[in-house]
């Protein structure tokens, strides 16, 4: 076995990364095995990485909840992965585990391709949630010139992100969201509220500044009630599918040296 790629996480059943990578592997005629999804307990991650190395794997994507643990297990990490202390892309090279993180670039490209930058530079952005995805997004929004406010159920997690990223942003409680909405140009939901039809009523879109941009990282369902409510109130909306595809594209480029195409056919195959 050699040159394989896969995604590790837990739970992993829902992951559509294999569909994306296998589409591009086929489209580009790359001679690697099928990209797989592998469910791993925390305790098994280290030995699995060693196994991959001995079996000449090309690389792995890493998803929840192993991104931070894998950072600890890497021999080298890119500057951005060092900053985030989280890995979503591993490359095995010369007996070394090299870590990178393509989430911020995936988020950035998902925005620039749709010309939403005007909602970000020197504007106020509200990021809801303080998990792994929020960390990448806060970092990237800040780089793009936004004034970020982070709101999370567990406020200490926002403080933790602020400390570890060593950047300045405001923090508020979920209860305080209504008070600041009239100043917000860009809202991102990074919480899991909305997956599998759960309700997300953290934002009253009547109170949000007019004509704002509302982004939900969830892509299944395609339009969460959160996005539907925002759209009904005249805000522009976007789900998380483009970011997922674009972070995958960046991983694909790292491993295979090819910039894969984001074709309509690919997007159709994911629906
Ligand atoms: P990811 O890596 O995708 O960001 P995560 O690290 O598990 O996933 O983060 C999930 C986020 O959803 C967290 O910010 C979590 O809030 P807590 O930090 O308080 O746990 C948020 N979240 C999950 N369920 C929630 C709920 N019922 N209400 C509010 N926030 C919730």
Nutshell version of this structure?
By secondary structure, the protein is α/β, with parallel strands linked by helices. The chain is about 40% helix and about 20% strand. Helix 1 (about 15-25) links the parallel strand 1 (about 5-10) and strand 2 (about 35-40).
What's the helix and strand layout?
Blueprint: E1 5-9, H1 17-27, E2 36-39, H2 45-54, E3 59-62, H3 67-73, E4 76-77, H4 79-84, E5 89-93, E6 96-100, H5 103-112, E7 124-128, H6 132-143, E8 147-151, H7 155-165, E9 170-172, H8 177-180, E10 186-189, E11 193-196, E12 213-216, H9 225-232, E13 236-238, H10 241-256, H11 264-270
Helix pairs in contact: 1-10, 5-6, 5-10
The structure holds 2'-monophosphoadenosine-5'-diphosphate (ATR).
2'-monophosphoadenosine-5'-diphosphate (ATR) is lined by residues 64, 129-134, 152-154, 157, 190-193.
Shape: globular
Question: Main sheet?
Answer: 6 strands, mixed
Here the CATH topology of the largest domain equals Rossmann fold
Assign a percent range to the helix content.
Answer: 25-40%
State the strand order across the main sheet.
2-1-3-5-6-4
CATH arch. level architecture of the largest domain? 3-Layer(aba) Sandwich
């Amino acid at each position: 076995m050699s040159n394989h790629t896969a995604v590790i996480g837990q739970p992993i059943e829902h992951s559509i990364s294999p569909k994306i990578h296998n589409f591009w592997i086929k489209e580009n005629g790359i001679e690697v095995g099928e990209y797989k999804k592998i469910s791993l307990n925390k305790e098994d991650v280290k030995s699995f990485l060693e196994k991959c190395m001995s079996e000449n794997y090309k690389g792995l994507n890493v998803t929840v909840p192993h991104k931070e643990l894998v950072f600890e297990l890497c021999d080298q990490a890119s500057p951005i992965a060092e900053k985030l202390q989280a890995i979503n892309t591993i490359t095995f090279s010369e007996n070394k585990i090299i870590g990178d993180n393509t989430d911020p670039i995936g988020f950035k490209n998902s925005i620039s391709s749709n010309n939403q930058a005007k909602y970000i530079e020197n504007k106020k952005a509200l990021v809801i949630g303080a998990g792994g995805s929020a960390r990448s997004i806060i970092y990237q929004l800040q780089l793009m010139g936004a004034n970020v406010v982070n709101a999370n159920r567990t406020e200490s997690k926002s403080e933790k992100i602020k400390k570890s990223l060593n950047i300045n942003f405001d923090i508020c409680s979920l209860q305080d969201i209504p008070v600041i909405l009239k100043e917000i140009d860009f809202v991102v939901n990074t919480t899991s509220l909305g997956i599998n039809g759960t309700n997300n009523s953290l934002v009253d879109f009547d109170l949000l500044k007019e004509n704002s941009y509302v982004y939900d990282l969830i892509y299944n369902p395609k339009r969460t009630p959160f996005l539907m409510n925002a759209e009904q109130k005249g805000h522009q909306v976007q789900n998380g599918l483009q970011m997922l595809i674009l972070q995958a594209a960046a991983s694909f480029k790292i491993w295979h040296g090819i910039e894969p195409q984001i074709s309509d056919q690919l997007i159709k195959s994911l629906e």
